[in-house]
């Protein structure tokens, strides 16, 4: 197969439609096969075109292709990118399935995961994140996605200016009995290696005790997209806000020891009013659809955030990340 087309709609062997229409904005593309169902083959032949469309629309759902196993999914992602990533500097429990393919966050099924862009707080993050439905849930378990460009349209100018001016301050506490330990986060038992990494990235750190590492750093609320060269919303200000955290945590630890603490860059609080504004803005721009076994959903991680609904049954969604972006590239 050779690339002979200018848009994804012109590629022979597949059909391009859209998810159900959502009020006020355009929903992502849905690509289904009309000839051979080997998605890896199409990715190899049309990689530049697919990437171009992904960075334009932000999300593409590939449905009814022959992707049945974790190995199939890894082959598809390897055809899409030469830079698939390991899951490092971890913030949530995930299990590696095969090389560079992981389970999505291993939280209990009754818990909802709020919208976020993968690793937006980090020094390195994936430009691309992909999800594969290995097992459909019995009920629920959707992965809602939000176009950040649409979400920002629902924010007041004062909130945008506040976050643009002050940025976001992140504090993380790693304790061996609550959340992920520092050994799990950095995938090493060597404190010197951890300290070297933190110093390299300019992160302030404190060993509260042998099992408790506290780190603090600052990030812009809006980041430059390395391909589009446009600035967009890219942070965890909403996700890690105290109002999204389990209130039972405060029965276990002091507020200063919560796993994540979010403030504005000048250490002032992100108020409840701003939190509620962000909550409503995400809600207004979110797209939710049911998973179908074999689905492959690819997101531009700097354009679209993702979440998770509670579910019943044996839901198994796998994830793979690609195309590393380093913060220092953009400043």
UniProtKB/TrEMBL annotation:
GO terms for biological process: antibiotic biosynthetic process. One of its GO terms (molecular function) is 2-oxoglutarate-dependent dioxygenase activity. It holds the Pfam family TauD. Keywords: Antibiotic biosynthesis, Dioxygenase, Oxidoreductase. Gene3D superfamilies: Clavaminate synthase-like. It comes from the Bacteria. InterPro entries: AlphaKG_dependent_hydroxylases (IPR050411), TauD-like_sf (IPR042098), TauD/TfdA-like (IPR003819). Its cofactor is Fe(2+). This is TauD/TfdA family dioxygenase. It comes from Paraflavitalea soli.
